[in-house]
Structure formats: structure tokens, C-alpha cells
């Protein structure tokens, strides 16, 4: 290394965490990553949304000489990221095409003078001819690549411009190169490390579990009314409602507005500037609710999203998990609610059937099945979700999903499970859903007759229930591991060992009916301070935050997070020194806003007594 990696004492790192960010403790993995960077090592980090990735590079950026180069894919996010860093007193700037030549020159001058801790650029800029030579002539402390999965064609968000980043290790042979992402399977992870040519990097794969998120499924009957009821129960909380079509987005937004909810629509059919404006209004807490298609996503850095409702069935678990992950980034309780109606399934099947590419169609089928299983099984939601990402959650109930919380009513469906299982067995475990259901319900099809399946013992014994009902039974058998689908060209149903006790009448089988009432469990530490209603002082402080955010044209959470407001409202500091004890307030924020905060608290205390 040309520049001896700074030998910083633990105490100095801890002090910076407190003075700059106002945090008293590191989150899991942060310290290890910061230390690796400070010692000059490459790093590769997979951490879920809200895990606290930005601190991992912003802290060393502050402590090291030179400028940390941050590669970030979204120009629209850069300004907020830079604003947030500047609010903490870091010297940060960005360089992108939204600036004119003069502004860009000014930033480059700062860079050359060593007057920046952080410089945010897009991958496109890095790929520009001559740009990496220019960088090589500056003092770059290390490079942090955000959303690093964009470099992998295996990932779901490939961006060709990221490929140029593979040359970083050549341009900067002695500089740590670090990569961060919230989404990477093992395969994508290896691909990223290879394409970036990382040199025996520190590898961190944080758990994907988000303990503060409450997962629940509600039977869907009237999505708009159900959403309205939820929002009314969670007044003043920020949330996102996802819908699949533009039309339903518009309809839901209109319905909510008519019922007095401050809501805005967001979908790809709106003009760019309307979209940008609506997103901005949400980020700045001017509206509580955005109703959106999944086009609304990457640009959401807001940390105090308190709920995400999927009013229609998502297409796959991966997307669902990422979308729900936009809630509760600040670590406070948040609710992820899915409205699940069997009526959504035929619509999605219709689209799937139009996919011409055979393997792709089968993948889509399988993805839909996974989502249906998630929603309909009587099994811990968290365990199911994490299992999907290859993470074992353990056997104890998570306690923070509707199933574990006992909110989901069970019905004993042992007899029907036996019927379905025996229909699978008696037809030789060689058929898919359609035919097995034909046999159970006694359908008179040519195929049934030709195969002689109308003579089976199970033929027609389930005629008293509808076909969709039997589909549900089969889906539940799959989700709970009593049946499996093989991977052949036409997926066929098979039973597993776990089915045997049920078939023999030695074990019961339950299916779930999701109940209407949805309430996230509160964390013990915040039990005394409901999230929805922080009391009158909280409201006053929030108003101050809104005013300050407007005045400085930054998102509200950049000024103070909800956690910070709540701590202020509870601990009620009255002198400047006490402010530094509050979560999220460092030296710079105390200086900037301390007086106004203290004035509000003092006035409140006086009027209270
Ligand atoms: P990510 O980029 O991984 O999605 P962020 O970097 O945006 O996550 O961090 C999410 C939230 O967690 C932010 O509000 C951030 O201030 C907060 N945070 C990060 N590190 C800590 C910490 N050590 N203690 C408390 N809060 C933290
Ligand atoms: Zn659970």
C-alpha cells in the first residue's frame, strides 16, 4: 500500500461513530467491515436493506486521508445520499449528468484539493473515456461499489456499465476496493467477486432476517377497503401499497384520497416529472401513502416506511422480499401485509401461459407456486422467506409473524389431505394438479376414462368441494412439505415421507384461514412508546422536522429519523450536552438544529406543568 493504512485505535473509531453519526453501538458486521477497510483490505458485503451499509464506507471515508469514491447506480438517489452525509458533517459531493459543466468543474477541483471525504459517481461516469486516468491522479482512499449485484448477469438487475468497474484493481493496485449489495445468491456473490477482481476480500454475508418486520397475510375480499382499514388503524404512518396494474394503482389511490387519506399514485404510465414529484413528496413526508406498481422501488431510501401492503399477489418471493424490505429500515417495527385471494392466481397464470420460452415459463410457474405456498401455508412466514434464500431460521417460532403470533386460524383438514394424497398415490404420482383434481372431484374427462381412473377408490369422493378448494389443499400439502413437484417438463405431484403419518391417520393436517386483525408486535424496548402515536411532543418535533426538511430541501429522515424524534420526546433533553446522548444526533446536527429542538422541548415542558 502506498499510503500506510491508518492505525486507528478502537476508541477513535468508536468516537467517530458517536460524534459523526450519533450512534452508540455498531450494528452486526459493521465494525468488522470498517476495520478491514481501514487496514487496506478489499471487502465484499451482502447485507439486507436497512442493515446499515452506508455507514460501513462513510465512517472509514471520514477517518482516512483522501477521498472515498462511491459508485452508485441511481442519479436520483445520489443527491439524497450526499445530503444525508453532509447533514452528518461529512464532506461529500456527487458528479453526474444533472450538473452543468461549471458545477462539475467545481466538484473536480474539490476532489483535486483533497477537500472531499466522499465522491459519489455513477458507473456511466466511471466508464467515460479518460475518467479513470483523472481519478488515478487524485488521492482516492478507497472505492465503495453500491448495488454491486448490477455487475452480474446472473442477478436480476444487470447493468452493462458496471462491467467497466472490473478495471478498478488495475487503476488502483494499492487501494481497497469494496462492494456492497442487499441481494445476491451464492452464485451471484462469486460472480461479483470475480468480475471486480477483488483480492482475497473480507466476505460478509449478513443474515437476511429482519427481526423488526412483522409478516402477515390477509384473505383478500375488497383490497381497497382492506387497505383503508389498515391505514386508518395506522394513522400518520408512512407506507407503500403495491398493486400490479396502472389501473388498479389509480383506482386505489383515488379511493384512499376520497376517504381522506393523503395518498399519491406512482406507475410507469405517469410523466417523469409527476413521478419524480410524487416520489419526492413521499420521501419528504408530505404524503403518508404511495400506491405504486413495482416501478416504485430503487429510488426509495426513506428509512421510516412503517408498512408495505401488497394488495395483489406478487410474482415471486425474491421481489416480494425486496419490496417488503423497504419498510423499517430504521430498525423500528414495521408491518408487511399481503392480501391473498385465490382469484389473483388465474390472472397471473394467464400471463404465464403467454410466455413462449418453455424453461422461462416453467420458472414463472414455479415462482407463482412459491408465492401461493407462502401465503397459504400454515407455517412461520419468516422461516419460509428465509428458507427461500437458503437460510435456516431455526425451529423456535419467530414470534413476529401472524402464524407464530397465533393470529391465523387453523382448520383441521386431515380428511381432505388424506383424499388428495391418496389420489396422488393411486394415479401413480405421475400427474399434475389438473388431473389429480379431476380424479378427486369425479370429472368426466376423456383422459380420466382412457386411463381408467374413474374406477379408482378416490374417484369423485371430493365432489362436495370446488376445484379451487382442492387446489388449495394441494398447495398446502406442497407448502408444508407433504407433497413435492418434480422438475420435469410437466410438473407432477408426488408425496413425501412426511405425508405418511397423515395418510395413516397418525397425524393431523391443518390449513390456515388468515384473520382480519393485523397488528405488528412491538419490540420490548419500545413497548412504552407506541410507534403510531408518539404523543404531542413527538408531533411538535415532527412538525419542526417537516419545516426544516422543506427549508433545506432534503428528505425529512435526513434531518432526524423517527427513532431520534421518539427518543427526544421521551428523554426530553433540555441542554445541548444532553442532545449528544440521543440516537442519531452527532456534533453537526446538534450545532445545526439543537437550539430549535431544545426550544420546542422546553416550551412543551413548561406548558405541560
Ligand atoms: P442500507 O444501505 O444497508 O439499506 P442504511 O445505510 O441506509 O442501510 O442504514 C439504514 C438505517 O440504519 C439508517 O437510518 C442508518 O442511520 C441506521 N444505522 C446504520 N448504522 C447504525 C448503527 N450502528 N446504529 C444505529 N442506527 C444505524
Ligand atoms: Zn413466524
Write structural notes for this entry.
The structure is a single chain. The protein is α/β, with parallel strands linked by helices and 609 residues long. The chain folds into four domains: 10-205, Rossmann fold, CATH 3.40.50.300; 213-409, Rossmann fold (3-Layer(aba) Sandwich); 414-508, Orthogonal Bundle (Arc Repressor Mutant, subunit A), CATH 1.10.10; 536-608, Orthogonal Bundle (DNA polymerase, domain 1). α13 (317-324) links the parallel β12 (305-310) and β13. α2 (30-38) runs parallel beside α3 and α17 packs across α20. The model is unreliable at 1-5 and 514-533 (pLDDT under 50). Residues 23, 25-27, 30, 47, 49-55, 303, 329-330, 561 line the site of adenosine-5'-diphosphate (ADP).
